[in-house]
Specification:
By secondary structure, the protein is α/β, with parallel strands linked by helices. It contains 9 helices and 13 strands. The chain is 37% helix and 15% strand.
Length: 374
């Protein structure tokens, strides 16, 4: 009985099978990519939004300051128009209005403090001013409403000016703040308070010129579009480009804030000095000073990357004799995307302002011997 001998397949047949498998795999991949491309086009993704409009926002004064040109908010109505209304918060034209009084500060005109009145003044930058948030939803206004619920004749004076650093906020306190006869001073503190002044005097023209702000960080940069090339006409390529750009921007933002708030950075040292000055001035006038710190709306969890900066600022405030509120703990666990004004505007929205107001009102009641809110 003879045994059958099996011969291995020829190299030609093996190569043919491999080629067929490769072509099938390539075809399946192309079909998948084509389906994804069609799906992205149907959904209108990815979206590349335009920045909000930039109306006249600042007016310069004749006052002299060691911190550059002294500017305030431009009196009248400052309106931002956004590219879309994803949260349904803006008006029919996708606009938010910021009303500024004749003194250059947000809100109604300041009047003499009434007898028996309780006045809280708020210092800060664009977060305190409330960029992208309606007048009635800013945390200074909400704080006053909460205090009025407890029977106080409370009112707020919002002295926030966009682009201010801590030194400029100290100037505003000295020039305007104590003339308003405050019962409490609240300083809204942000991670960019250690920056140099937003405006400087041009040595040639003698006119104020705006400092070029950091363009590699999310808060300052404008929404970008991919390069105008044949490849980026594909939605898939645009999506990959957008994802990479966002990750890079997040990393650059963190690096920027870490360097800005490094203990040896001159801006950080000056900001600490100005914090001491603000709190010391309040103590001289026998007025409680509350510093509320806003976190970067990014990774609001146990591994929040700038926690050490918050701790350092809190230590400076407490050593100077002030009261420190860190909003990081109150916002922990929330989705940062639900806390911003707009995908093109990283300022905190009305939800964050409401949380800040609640904590500030509670702290004011504690500091002024008022029964605590339930």
């Amino acid at each position: 009985m003879t045994e059958k001998v099996s011969h291995p397949p020829s190299r030609g047949k093996t190569s043919l099978r491999l080629l067929r498998r490769l072509l099938l795999s390539l075809g399946a991949t192309l079909l998948t990519l084509t389906a994804l491309e069609i799906g992205l086009r149907i959904l209108g993704l990815p979206k590349f939004l335009k920045p909000h409009t930039t109306p006249l926002q600042f007016g310069f004064t004749d006052r002299e300051s060691a911190n550059g040109p002294f500017y305030l908010n431009y009196p009248g109505r400052i309106t931002f128009r956004y590219d879309g209304n994803p949260r349904g918060y803006f008006d029919a034209q996708n606009e938010v209005h910021h009303d500024v009084n004749p003194s250059g500060f947000r809100g109604p005109a300041f009047t003499p403090k009434p007898a028996g009145g309780f006045r809280v003044i708020f210092l800060g930058d664009s977060f305190t001013f409330g960029e992208g948030v309606r007048n009635e939803d800013t945390f200074p206004e909400v704080t006053a409403r909460l205090l009025r619920k407890d029977g106080r004749r409370a009112e707020s004076c919002n002295l926030g000016v966009s682009g201010y650093n801590t030194t400029q906020e100290a100037d505003v306190l000295k020039i305007f703040g104590f003339d308003l006869k405050p019962d409490v001073v609240v300083l809204g503190y942000t991670l960019n308070d250690a920056e140099p002044p937003l405006f400087q005097i041009d040595p040639v023209s003698g006119e104020p010129v705006r400092r070029a702000r950091e363009t590699t960080i999310e808060v300052e940069s404008q929404p970008l579009r991919p390069p105008d090339s044949l490849l980026y006409r594909l939605r898939l390529a645009q999506l990959v480009w957008q994802t990479v750009e966002r990750r890079q921007a997040a990393g650059q933002t963190l690096d920027y804030y870490r360097s800005l708030n490094a203990p040896t950075n001159p801006g950080r040292i000056e900001s600490d000095r100005a914090l001491h000055e603000i709190i010391s001035l309040c103590r001289e006038h026998d007025v409680p000073c509350i510093v509320v710190m806003f976190p970067l709306l990014y990774r609001l969890s146990d591994d929040y990357p700038l926690k050490d900066v918050h701790e350092r600022v809190g230590q400076v405030v407490r050593q100077a004799g002030g009261t420190f509120i860190d909003l990081l703990s109150a916002l922990k666990g929330q989705d940062p995307g639900t806390l911003i004004v707009h995908p093109t505007d990283q300022h905190p929205n009305e939800k964050v302002h409401a949380i800040a107001a609640r904590l500030i009102a509670q702290e004011i009641e504690r500091l002024t011997d008022s029964p605590p809110r339930p």
